């Protein structure tokens, strides 16, 4: 049990790092190419790569058990990614990441009712502290000029739309994970996403330069890796426990934004990031203590 939850933590942190890199690449691509074309090409690459790697020439190797859930997931994945691409045109990488943290907040709460999970008090404390850190990070822009506020509102519309979609996406993914193997997910999530976007992609299509093509290929590879990381994490621990770990992404996004985009933070914003990181570390430690306590109790019962 302890090893499974440790692995879940590692997979979830890997997922957060990969998503930060994907958002960074998306910010670059979205300035030159329509997000619809980018997301279409990324999913085509990911789908073909997954089919070649996992099918081995046999339909049985990739045959899904829950086709409708995969179609629904593809629609959700496309919608959330496009919303995030547009949000990055108005907000910084760290700000989009911060707003995206409403996803674990809402998902953790809904998982209690949908999956009958019973999170401990430390899960709720982590959520509250991380939410406070998010508000500290966003507060400088909320108090800025009217033009800046207009960009903030546009960015918020896209970012919060992505949040609502991603909450449904996580719940859908948990349901798939309970009834589906990882290989069909790796194949059909990007495949259906590409099919859904095909008509729009044709309409907005424009030729790609070399840099854009390379970035799209990299994005596609990261997408495959991220799909696997999240699937393995969700299969090894409760959703309510894993969701607060997504807040570690703010550290990754802040570092990447500073290095590649020269995006800096105010002192209040830095304080918010520190609060988020410390809260996430505390959350992991509490999970560790809980596992140790459970292991000791089981050994005591066995010895008796």
TrEMBL record:
It is found in: Membrane. The keyword Membrane applies. Coiled coil: none annotated. This is DMT family transporter. GO terms for cellular component: membrane. Residues 8-138 form the EamA domain. The chain crosses the membrane at residues 7-29, 35-54, 74-92, 98-115, 122-140, 152-171, 183-205, 211-233, 267-289. It comes from the Bacteria. It is a multi-pass membrane protein. PANTHER family: ACYL-MALONYL CONDENSING ENZYME-RELATED, SOLUTE CARRIER FAMILY 35 MEMBER G1. Keywords: Membrane, Transmembrane, Transmembrane helix. It comes from Pseudoalteromonas prydzensis. The keyword Acetylation does not apply. Its main location: membrane.
């Amino acid at each position: 049990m302890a090893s499974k939850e440790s692995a879940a933590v590692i997979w979830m942190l890997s997922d957060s790092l990969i998503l930060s890199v994907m958002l960074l690449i998306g910010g670059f691509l979205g300035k030159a190419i329509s997000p619809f074309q980018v997301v279409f090409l990324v999913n085509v690459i990911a789908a073909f790569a997954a089919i070649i790697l996992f099918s081995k020439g046999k339909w049985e190797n990739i045959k899904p058990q829950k086709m409708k859930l995969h179609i629904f997931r593809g629609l959700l994945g496309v919608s959330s990614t496009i919303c995030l691409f547009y949000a990055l045109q108005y907000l910084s990488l760290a700000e989009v990441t911060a707003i995206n943290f409403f996803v674990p907040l809402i998902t953790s709460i809904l998982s209690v009712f949908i999956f009958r999970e019973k999170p401990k008090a430390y899960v709720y404390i982590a959520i509250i502290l991380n939410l406070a850190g998010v508000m500290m990070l966003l507060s400088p822009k909320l108090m800025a000029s009217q033009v800046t506020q207009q960009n903030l509102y546009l960015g918020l519309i896209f970012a919060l739309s992505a949040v609502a979609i991603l909450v449904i996406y996580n719940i859908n993914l948990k349901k798939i994970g309970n009834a589906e193997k990882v290989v069909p997910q790796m194949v059909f999530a990007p495949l259906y996403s590409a099919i859904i976007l095909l008509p729009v992609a044709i309409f907005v299509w424009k030729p790609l330069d070399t840099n854009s093509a390379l970035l799209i290929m990299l994005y596609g590879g990261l997408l495959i890796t991220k799909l696997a990381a999240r699937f393995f994490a969700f299969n090894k621990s409760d959703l309510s426990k894993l969701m607060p770990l997504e807040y570690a992404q703010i550290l990754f996004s802040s570092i990447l934004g500073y290095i590649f985009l020269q995006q800096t933070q105010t002192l209040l914003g830095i304080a918010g990031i520190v609060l988020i990181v410390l809260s996430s570390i505390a959350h992991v430690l509490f999970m560790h203590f809980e596992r140790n306590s459970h292991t000791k109790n089981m050994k005591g019962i066995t010895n008796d």
